[in-house]
Design brief:
15 strands, 30% helix, five-stranded antiparallel β-sheet, alpha+beta, five-stranded mixed β-sheet
């Protein structure tokens, strides 16, 4: 009887503390700082299954790059330990390659060369390049971003990350070098002509710059012809049971995607995931499939239109992010899961924020568009409690730095008090 009484007291004290935190945090979110913007927050304790903060948690927000959390979930659910590099068929001296959306092929960071190494063993190479049903750009993407590093085109068989890389330290350097003559050293409003692969690099600039390629069939074939002696693009391979070659660990690509908030990797991860459904690649089909088959537990069905969060058509609730983060927390070893995310004060987009002392307390994905900032992930309290959260801000006119400073105070309170 005495033990039961003690347990009741402990539960009562814990409940009082939860109520106090909820009251204090809600009051803060109703302060003047937030009264000219739209804010939603949810904080959840997966151990006790208690919701510590619920403020507009079921309202829909523009998530920006928090969308990549849903892309991460999809990749981990479908791609296995290693990402597919391509599908292939061998017939005598000819190898036929079919794209599966692999973004790492000759990518500046990953440098995957599996396709070239295999193709060089055969006299002829045939490549299927048109098995992607998605448009080059996602719905709602800003047209004027076509020349920016964060907006490469989506393709079935990416090459060089679908960008050229230019620098001018002691001399002009271009990758792929075969396109060096397409780069003009001059200052223009845009870094590339909108309708052709003519690139512009400022005279005084030395910083390495990535500029998206217009990925039409002629340009893609030109890049492949520089790699192999006899290459041809075909529309339909007409082979059944093509084999699959694999590239690098899925976790490596996902970690890079989250830490660098890499839109290209995010889009291509969804496309690669769709290759597990059929030979016709479709991120739209993949999104529908994952929502229907793997995310039935979401209480608020999102409007999910791309893999990266570039589109303002995306609409998600803080509660949806907490629920999908909780699902991953339940099914993926903690060390592996946390290793994928940016770490507060240490890495990725959180390197300058949410620093722990002496150890990190924040493992989360940020999302930024003009006048919008979101952060969703995992917080470790000073007592070792893991909290799952989503904090979303839309339509503010302050600087994003001001928003982050206010959020940091919020998270430090949770870290210290819980």
């Amino acid at each position: 009887m005495k033990k039961i009484s003690i347990l009741i007291v402990i539960i009562s004290l814990f409940g009082c503390k939860t109520a106090r935190i909820h009251k204090k945090m809600t009051k803060k979110l109703q302060s003047a700082f937030y009264n000219k913007q739209f804010t939603g927050v949810m904080v959840y304790n997966p151990r006790t299954k208690d919701t510590l903060v619920n403020y507009n948690a079921n309202a829909f927000f523009t998530p920006a790059s928090n969308t990549k959390i849903f892309t991460l979930f999809t990749a981990l659910q479908t791609l296995g330990d290693s990402i597919p590099a391509f599908k292939y068929h061998i017939n005598n001296d000819t190898i036929t390659l079919q794209g599966v959306g692999n973004p790492t092929f000759l990518h500046a960071y990953f440098k995957d060369s599996t396709a070239v190494k295999m193709a060089k063993k055969y006299a002829k190479t045939r490549i299927m390049f048109n098995n992607l049903s998605d448009d080059a750009f996602g719905p709602g993407w800003a047209w004027e971003d076509y020349d920016t590093y964060f907006s490469p085109e989506r393709t079935a068989f990416p090459i060089y990350g679908n960008v050229i890389t230019v620098s001018n330290d002691t001399a002009l350097k271009v990758t792929p070098n075969v396109w060096k003559n397409r780069v003009m050293v001059k200052t223009k409003k845009f870094r590339r002509h909108q309708l052709k692969n003519e690139f512009y690099y400022p005279i005084q600039r030395t910083k390495e710059t990535e500029i998206p390629i217009l990925m039409d069939s002629i340009s893609q074939l030109s890049l492949w012809e520089n790699l192999l002696p006899d290459v041809e693009f075909i529309k339909t391979p007409n082979f059944v049971n093509m084999k699959t070659a694999f590239a690098m660990p899925t976790d490596s690509v996902c970690k890079r995607m989250l830490n660098e908030s890499d839109n290209f990797l995010a889009e291509q991860l969804l496309i690669m995931a769709s290759s597990t459904l059929s030979d016709t690649l479709s991120s739209k089909k993949m999104r529908r499939h994952i929502l229907k088959q793997k995310l039935q537990f979401l209480q608020d069905k999102p409007r999910w239109v791309d893999g990266s969060g570039l589109s303002r058509y995306n609409l998600f609730t803080p509660r949806s992010f907490v629920q999908i983060l909780n699902k991953m927390y339940e099914n993926i070893p903690k060390k592996r899961l946390f290793n994928l995310f940016p770490v507060g004060g240490q890495s990725g987009t959180l390197k300058k924020w949410y620093k722990g002392n002496p150890r990190p307390y924040m493992y989360a994905k940020s999302g930024t568009l003009s006048n919008n900032y979101a952060l969703s992930g995992y917080l470790i309290s000073n007592k070792g409690e893991t909290l799952i959260f989503s904090f979303m801000n839309n339509h503010y006119r302050k600087s994003t730095s001001e928003i982050k400073k206010e959020m940091q105070v919020f998270f430090e309170y949770l870290r210290d008090e819980f």
